[in-house]
Amino acid sequence: MQTLDAPDRTGLPPTLGTVVVTGGASGLGAAIADAVARHGGTPVTFDIAEPRSHRDYAHHIVDVTDRRAIEHAMRDVAERNGGAIDAVVANAGMDACGDFDTVDADAWERVIHVNLIGTAALARAALPYLRRAANPRIVNVASTLGLRVLGAATAYSASKFGVVGFTRGLALDLAGRVGVTLLIPGGMNTHFFDGRDPQFKPAADAFEKNQLNDPRSVAETVVFALSQPKGVEIRELIVTPSRETSWP
Fold first, then answer.
1. What confidence tens digit (pLDDT) does each residue in 56-107 have?
2. What residue ranges do the domains of the chain occupy?
3. May I ask the CATH architecture of the domain 18-239?
4. In this structure, are strands 236-239 and 179-185 parallel, antiparallel, or unpaired?
5. Is the pTM of this model over 0.90?
6. 90 phi and psi, to 5 degrees?
């Protein structure tokens, strides 16, 4: 009987390498950084805030709406790692809840700048250094609200629909050169909902009722995408709690 040869992993780095994660100070971003480190990689986090808990990872204070700041921080990371960066994860995100005519215009537009323009700016700044890596990867974090619209979320949905379209197009443009994965997570048990009006918060028992995922579980799917052999692409991952209210 014919057997299949093991996949050729020649050229892969021995670990995940250096992985830049935006929004890495807390929530899913921090969980991704932890997972990268746990699986042998070297996480570097970008965020407008200091990490919520002590970690030994390199951290840069970066606002992803500031393209120059992203470029400067990315160059610094690359210079400290032999000129290459192995992967970037565009995770930084925010929301401005409420009906369109009640949300402040500046707040609405900042959601677009952070979630969509910031995602594109990260990829653009990283590409020169990703091209020097053996198995470069980009993971862009969208949302189930990038596939389905809910009320009082026009800014968030518009931005995440944009991330879906941008990432699918980016995968075509970079095919054969840089691996691109679109992550579409459902609700997670993080600080993302802090400070919201109670009507826009999950129920207190949502996590116990499997309506929110542990971000650590979602982070493992990112590592799965980053760990594929060269030439193998995980194009899209939809990861939701079993009782996700916004999917399908």
1. 899 999 999 999 999 999 999 999 999 999 999 999 999 999 999 999 999 9
2. 18-239
3. 3-Layer(aba) Sandwich (3.40)
4. parallel
5. yes
6. -85, 95
